[in-house]
């Protein structure tokens, strides 16, 4: 068997390890990237205190599902200040923005040039430290960024070898303040990463080992983190998100993420809810093609068969307030064709093990209408 595995990120994980942030800084021109809510919650002040310096520039305007305009605005600030170190403190939206900004400092043009493929990043001189405050995206250990082009209304991923962070500083305590709905949505995002990486055509033994453990942790802890939010469940979810990120950084995601882009873009569904909406249905379809492989996951979870797994997923989604029907977010029969076309236009749709073309996807959407 041939296999490649490459993950050039130093990972620091543990409760309270935000205290080590200062020791990771080597430059003089430091930029902190975050968002308004996290600024209000005191995360930015905490980061500044841990760095132990006072000379920073800050950009705390990142919105959920960051737009190209936001990235370019932050990049202008970074270029003007000749930034040499970026600390991203936030969820996937903040970390993805920081990845692009770190690259745009030493590459000319705008993020759209790279998103539409007319330019490619050729270097990155800025040190990038990612400090996640959600437990879902795994962006701290992936070479992917996801950006929304408001002019075309398209949200899409960009992959670059220069998007790996130098350090992923994962302190589960930073997720203690997550509201229930964000805990639910981000937890389901991590679950989608793990499940999709596990079944992806591009999966390999190391990514499978990471993914299977991530699924196990999420099934054990997500509902508890949602209802109790206790330390053990938060730590379990942060680990799961990290492992799932490592897994899909090697394989990419598949049809569930392809479906998520229009659901978020057009219907405003939070990313993790959008990724998981069709999970039980796609799981059953994939079982017909890779049943033996999915049986290993089913047994590892202590379940008997595919129906039990599918029912467990449904029960989990309901218990944490995730939508199960397209109609819950205002989608009607007449919208399905557009949703099918938009989902299938994403290249990752082809990485799904079972062939899901127009007909199959239409059928899935009709089942969950
Ligand atoms: P997010 O970063 O958009 O944050 C969601 C909300 O939660 C924001 O309002 C934020 O202020 C708030 N929040 C974050 N941490 C908090 C905390 N500790 N306490 C209270 N509130 C907090 O959400 P996300 O799910 O982490 O990121 C989603 C984005 O990441 C999407 O654009 C998605 O496409 C992208 N993504 C990227 C990758 C990747 O590998 N690069 C992977 C998956 C998803």
Task: Explain the overall architecture.
There is one protein chain. With 369 residues, the protein is of the alpha/beta class. It folds into two domains: 165 residues, Rossmann fold (3-Layer(aba) Sandwich), CATH 3.40.50; 190 residues, Up-down Bundle (Dehydroquinate synthase-like, alpha domain). The protein has 14 helices and eight strands. The strands form two sheets. Strands 1-8-5-4-2-3 form a six-stranded parallel beta sheet, sandwiched between helices. Strands 6-7 form a two-stranded antiparallel sheet. Strand 6 and strand 7 form a beta hairpin. The longest helix is centred in the middle third of the chain and has 23 residues. The chain starts with 9 loop residues before the first strand and ends with a helix. 50% of the residues are buried. The model has no long low-confidence stretch (mean pLDDT 97). Nicotinamide-adenine-dinucleotide binds next to helix 1, helix 4, strand 6, helix 6 and helix 10. The site of nicotinamide-adenine-dinucleotide (NAD) has 31 residues, from helix 1, helix 4, strand 6, helix 6 and helix 10.
């Amino acid at each position: 068997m041939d296999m490649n595995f490459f993950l050039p990120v130093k990972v620091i994980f543990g409760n309270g390890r935000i205290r080590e942030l200062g020791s990771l800084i080597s430059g003089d021109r430091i930029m902190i990237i975050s968002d308004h809510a996290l600024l209000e919650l005191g995360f930015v002040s905490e980061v500044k205190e841990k760095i132990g310096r006072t000379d920073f520039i800050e950009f705390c305007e990142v919105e959920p599902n960051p737009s190209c305009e936001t990235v370019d605005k932050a990049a202008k600030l970074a270029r003007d200040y000749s930034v040499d170190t970026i600390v991203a403190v936030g969820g996937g939206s903040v970390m993805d923005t920081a990845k692009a900004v770190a690259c745009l400092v030493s590459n000319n043009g705008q993020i759209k040039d790279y998103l539409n493929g007319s330019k490619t990043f050729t270097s990155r001189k800025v040190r990038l430290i990612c400090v996640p405050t959600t437990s879902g995206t795994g962006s701290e250990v992936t070479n992917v960024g996801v950006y929304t082009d408001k002019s075309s209304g398209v949200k899409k991923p960009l992959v670059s070898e220069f998007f790996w962070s130098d350090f992923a500083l994962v302190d589960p305590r930073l997720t203690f303040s997550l509201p229930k709905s964000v805990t639910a949505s981000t937890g389901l995002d991590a679950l989608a990463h793990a499940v999709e990486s596990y079944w992806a055509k591009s999966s390999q033994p190391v990514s499978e080992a990471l993914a299977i453990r991530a699924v196990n942790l999420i099934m054990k802890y997500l509902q508890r983190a949602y209802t109790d939010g206790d330390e053990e469940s938060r730590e379990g979810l942060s680990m799961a998100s990290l492992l799932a990120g490592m897994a899909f950084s090697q394989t990419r995601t598949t049809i569930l993420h392809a479906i998520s882009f229009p659901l978020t873009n057009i219907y405003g569904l939070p990313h993790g809810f959008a990724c998981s909406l069709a999970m039980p249905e796609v799981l059953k379809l994939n079982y017909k093609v890779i049943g033996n492989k999915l049986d290993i996951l089913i047994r590892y979870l202590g379940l008997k068969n595919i129906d039990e797994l599918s029912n467990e997923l449904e029960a989990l989604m309901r218990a944490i307030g995730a939508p199960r029907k397209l109609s819950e977010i205002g989608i009607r029969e007449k919208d399905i064709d557009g949703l099918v076309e938009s989902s299938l236009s994403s290249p990752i749709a082809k990485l799904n093990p079972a062939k899901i073309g127009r007909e199959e996807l239409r059928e899935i959407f009709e089942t969950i209408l």
